Amino acid sequence: MHRLTCLTAMICLPALAQAAPWHGIWSAEPDWCVNAERIGSVTPAPILLSASEMLGYENSCDITAVDEVDGLSAWQIDITCQSEGDLYEERRLIMVDGDRMWMWFGADEPLLFTRCPA
Known about the structure:
8 strands; globular; 8-stranded antiparallel barrel; 1 helix; mainly beta
């Protein structure tokens, strides 16, 4: 039984740990990727998206909900953010195609981001 449990864990855990396609460091301008290790402390800089947070310059957000949009490589994320002492909540739509990501802020045109090299 112990061997079966260990084998199941070895097969299933890596699949559970895989990052979503939208996780990573993204930049509105590819040249900003040089500041990827300094997110939050310099501008211009890319943003960081993980399963639990979104970090940018002078703001940090907790990702409180993620809903995948069926049939698309897209997700709605609910975020609670702090920026320059203010708290706010937003819903954003993100769509990923390879190393490109579009992020919608309400009804405005989406911003196009490019994944920064690892």
